[in-house]
Specification:
single chain; mainly beta; two-stranded antiparallel ribbon; 1 helix; 10 strands; 42% strand
Length: 143
């Protein structure tokens, strides 16, 4: 899996968009409410620590079972302390990767059964760049 840095987060403006009071059904259709509950700023919703947040694009299929797919945009927070089970952006022996952190067995786990766990050997050059807090996927390609 290749990771490409896209940008660091910089809050320069606020854009509030409508947030409807009811949840959208993904199964059978239900009547929609004709009113907004409130406005939502995606910066406030997705970015908790703007100065420590950056974005990168995913290349590869090793994280599909947690909903991270090729071409997705990851939101990564450097200020969070990584915990067991977190999806992290890590550098292991010079290779940047997005994996699940297994602190109990000192390894990185893919979220795809076709990929083996990656052990973190004693003395390995290992660094966690940040914790992945969200991923964004486009469902319609914009021109």
């Amino acid at each position: 899996m290749d990771i490409q840095l896209v940008a660091t987060h910089q809050t320069k403006s606020t854009l509030y968009t409508p947030l409807y009071a009811t949840k959208v059904q993904a199964g059978f259709p239900s009547p929609a409410d004709d009113y907004m509950d409130r406005s939502l700023d995606l910066n406030e919703h997705l970015i908790k620590h703007p100065a420590a947040t950056f974005y990168c694009e995913v290349s590869g299929e090793s994280m599909t079972e947690v909903g991270i797919f090729n071409g997705d945009l990851l939101i990564v927070d450097r200020s969070l302390k990584p915990q067991h089970g977190d999806v992290v952006l890590a550098v292991l022996n010079g290779e940047l990767t997005c994996k699940i952190l297994d602190m109990h067995h000192r390894r990185l786990l893919a979220a795809n059964s076709q990929y083996a766990p990656i052990p973190i050997q004693e003395g390995a050059d290992f660094l966690i760049e940040g914790v992945v807090t969200s991923s964004i996927r486009r469902h319609r390609c914009l021109p």
